[in-house]
Amino acid sequence: MQIPSLKSSVSADEWQLRVDLAAGYRLVAAYGMSDLVFTHISARIPGPEHHFLINPYGMMFDEITASSLVKVDQSCHTLSDSPFPVNPAGFTIHSAIHQARKDAGCVLHTHTRAGIAVSAQQDGVLPISQQSTFVLASLAYHDYEGVALRDEEKPRLQADLGDKTFLMLRNHGLLTVGRTVADAFLSMYTFENTCRIQVDALAGGKALTPIDPQILQGMNAVMKTVTVGQGAALVWPALLRKLDRMDPGYRD
What is the distance, to the nearest Å, from the Cα of residue 46 to the centroid of all Cα atoms in its chain? Predict the structure, then answer.
């Protein structure tokens, strides 16, 4: 479906956010982390209005463009024209986190096989890979309460997340919080690979070698060193170049 460009109708800041968020959706699809039209990536629009961008409900992640993203308020009321609806139920988790975490410029949630598999394991993430060390440095858990439709779950979700970057939703999936779309995506890429490695390792049927707990200390500082102080900004331009080679249509 061809959706008219909004580039001339929104601020430069909002347009850049739209491009980045559309890229985030395309990358989640490209790296095998999407679930048909389900799950969401939300991003807070700069400014005092507390408005957000979210996917049009019914579009596959690899179809989403900058102009197709829908602007909503904190209650997921639509603030922009779109031929697609939005999913208020799907925004329940996102709105709770955006409300509690002013640093949450982007919230990314997935339903991957590996993520759900590890979320169903009593011990959660195990310290058995280099990837897991970064996740364990800032990981929280939230117990399953059924499909996340009820506002009464929000305070418990907010309390469980606290100030962490990674949230494992028990029996449900994975969630990351980032200052930018790039931050949330890089964290999710690491989270997802942590879970895939764990599932593969457990499937081997042999005893696992845990990482020394002392190595887990100070991993946030290590991550800054690994990314030469740039965090996700180090890899984001390369990811956009990858998307541009595949299909630059996300920028429309």
Answer: 18
